[in-house]
């Protein structure tokens, strides 16, 4: 694997591939593809336009359009002028957009001129709210580079600490924070990928939105190695049939998705048995039942479970899943130069097998939250285990322990475990118990309250396709009672045709909670 850090970073490495394999397909989004030569030409045209409009290194280019090949072009164009990208799809709440624009130094807004969801005047209004001189540029340069490109000198050397992208995350408070990842962070993330591949047929497929950093996991790695990166477009994103068809069409060799969306894709992926070299799941806990389903549909295809908060630049730990876990798969060991520690309240290492707080260190630790010094200081702390000074580690807020094999196991959130009648309950263990029932395909358990205001558990479950007789709540209670302590048995069971997914392809827990409100549509006892 090329040393992206030593060779100048992600932008330099992608441009190197544009010269090396100009006629190879670089990016596919939906039904549109670009060769490396076309990607180079389109991103150069937009980069010159951005530079001519005064965009400076360190500023942020807001890419305000629905997912398409033009989105990727705009991201690379931003890197080429030394700026960072921030992808925001149309329909983002106005209040959240204003909060974001208040936090970042927006140099320009690139929008989809042909998209009715982003009318020119509304984008210009948005640009005015970002600053008096912030230009709004439509994406014509990304599709058809003009013959006479606007002239502007592009910066040759951009410091590695300069921001590469900004991505919003709401955390547990619901208040959006803009996480800033540097060019060094991004290069280290790509260098940490040690996936097995054959350059002649490398095709990665990311079943994600480009608004979520999980989309970068395989996309940038492929572009830095001369492979082909495939993503669904805005029309396909939440359609598992369409997404799977796109993956099959391009004979995907490396696929990445969230566990929730992979459940929907898996029944359609059998034709890829002869092509897939690795399936990577990330973003949520990986239950043992899904590992079993993967083995049944794609026997022999390696499965990897990756972990990483947005603040640690995409993913920083990985576990090759060789055995079916009793509950959820471990999150594994650090990737590349990342480090991970399970610590107590005094930042001391806890004994193996003991649950503690998970901290992550190394070169992928992001710059922090834009314009939020207090929030940054609270979560990014001095790395006591690193040589030298200035190194930081990120307090993930996740509980973890080291298993007998040396792998790190995810044990829930510091703020997510619930105490039910005196016992501390981890909801993933309850979900695993429910999914062991032959008639249950998938389950999600949320902490709720009973009629007396006491902590309780509500289980949402999807029946298995082969189930002919659905279990009653009494049956499910009995099933759980045989496997869990009494306090961990859910008080309520709601059967659903499918679990709602958020734009990130993770389970939409907010939508599930709305079902519990009067008239919310929940069906069960």
From TrEMBL:
Q: Where is the signal peptide?
A: none
Q: Indicate the segments forming the AMP-binding enzyme C-terminal domain, all copies.
A: 430-506
> Cross-referenced InterPro entries, in alphabetical order?
AA_adenyl_dom, AMP-bd_C, AMP-bd_C_sf, AMP-binding_CS, AMP-dep_synth/lig_dom
Q: Which residues form the AMP-dependent synthetase/ligase domain?
A: 16-369
Query: An example of a Gene Ontology BP annotation on this entry?
Result: secondary metabolite biosynthetic process
The entry lists its GO molecular-function terms as: phosphopantetheine binding
Q: Name one GO cellular component term.
A: cytoplasm
Source species, domain of life: Bacteria
Residues covered by region (Disordered): 137-156
Q: What's this protein's name?
A: Amino acid adenylation domain-containing protein
Q: Which organism is it from?
A: Rhodococcus jostii
- Which lineage do the record's taxonomy fields give for this organism? Bacteria, Bacillati, Actinomycetota, Actinomycetes, Mycobacteriales
């Amino acid at each position: 694997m090329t040393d992206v850090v030593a060779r100048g970073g992600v932008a330099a490495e992608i441009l190197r591939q544009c010269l090396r394999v100009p006629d190879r397909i670089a990016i596919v989004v939906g039904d549109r593809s670009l060769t490396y030569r076309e990607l180079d030409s389109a991103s150069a045209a937009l980069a010159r336009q951005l530079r001519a409009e005064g965009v400076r290194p360190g500023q942020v280019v807001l890419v305000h359009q629905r997912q398409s090949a033009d989105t990727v072009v705009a991201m690379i164009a931003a890197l080429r002028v030394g700026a960072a990208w921030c992808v925001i799809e149309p329909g983002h709440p106005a209040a959240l957009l204003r909060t974001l624009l208040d936090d970042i130094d927006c140099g320009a807004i690139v929008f989809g001129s042909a998209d009715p969801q982003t009318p020119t005047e509304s984008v210009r209004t948005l640009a005015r709210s970002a600053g008096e001189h912030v230009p709004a540029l439509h994406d014509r340069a990304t599709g058809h580079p003009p013959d006479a490109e606007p002239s502007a000198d592009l910066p040759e050397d951009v410091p590695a600490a300069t921001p590469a992208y900004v991505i919003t995350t709401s955390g547990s408070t619901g208040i959006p924070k803009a996480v800033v990842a540097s060019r060094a962070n991004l290069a280290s993330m790509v260098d940490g990928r040690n996936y097995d591949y054959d350059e002649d047929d490398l095709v990665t497929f990311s079943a994600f939105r480009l608004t979520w950093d999980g989309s970068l996991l395989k996309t940038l790695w492929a572009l830095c190695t001369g492979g082909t990166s495939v993503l669904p477009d805005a029309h396909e994103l939440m359609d598992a049939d369409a997404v799977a068809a796109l993956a099959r069409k391009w004979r995907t060799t490396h696929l990445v998705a969230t566990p929730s969306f992979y459940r929907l894709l898996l029944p359609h992926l059998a034709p890829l048995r002869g092509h897939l070299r690795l399936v990577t799941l990330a973003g949520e806990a990986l239950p043992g039942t899904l590992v079993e389903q993967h083995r049944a549909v794609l026997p022999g295809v390696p499965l990897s479970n990756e972990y990483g908060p947005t603040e640690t630049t995409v993913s920083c730990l990985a576990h090759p899943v060789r055995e079916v876990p009793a509950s959820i798969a471990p999150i594994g060991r650090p990737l590349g130069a990342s480090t991970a520690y399970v610590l107590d309240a005094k930042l001391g290492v806890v004994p193996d097998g003991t649950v503690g707080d998970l901290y992550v260190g190394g070169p992928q630790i992001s710059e922090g939250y834009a314009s939020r010094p207090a929030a940054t200081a609270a979560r990014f702390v001095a790395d006591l285990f690193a040589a030298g000074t200035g190194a930081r580690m990120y307090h993930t807020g996740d509980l973890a322990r080291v298993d007998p094999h040396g792998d790190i196991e995810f044990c829930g959130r510091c703020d997510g475990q619930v105490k039910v009648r005196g016992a501390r309950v981890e909801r993933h263990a309850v979900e695993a118990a429910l999914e062991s029932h032959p008639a249950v395909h998938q389950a999600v358990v949320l902490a709720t309250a009973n009629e007396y205001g006491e902590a309780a558990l509500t289980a949402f479950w999807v029946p298995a396709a082969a189930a002919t007789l659905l279990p009653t709540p009494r049956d499910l209670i009995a099933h759980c009672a045989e496997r869990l302590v009494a306090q961990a048995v859910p008080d309520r069971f709601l059967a659903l045709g499918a679990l709602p997914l958020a734009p990130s392809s993770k389970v939409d827990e907010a939508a599930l909670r709305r079902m519990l409100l009067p008239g919310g549509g929940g069906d069960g006892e």
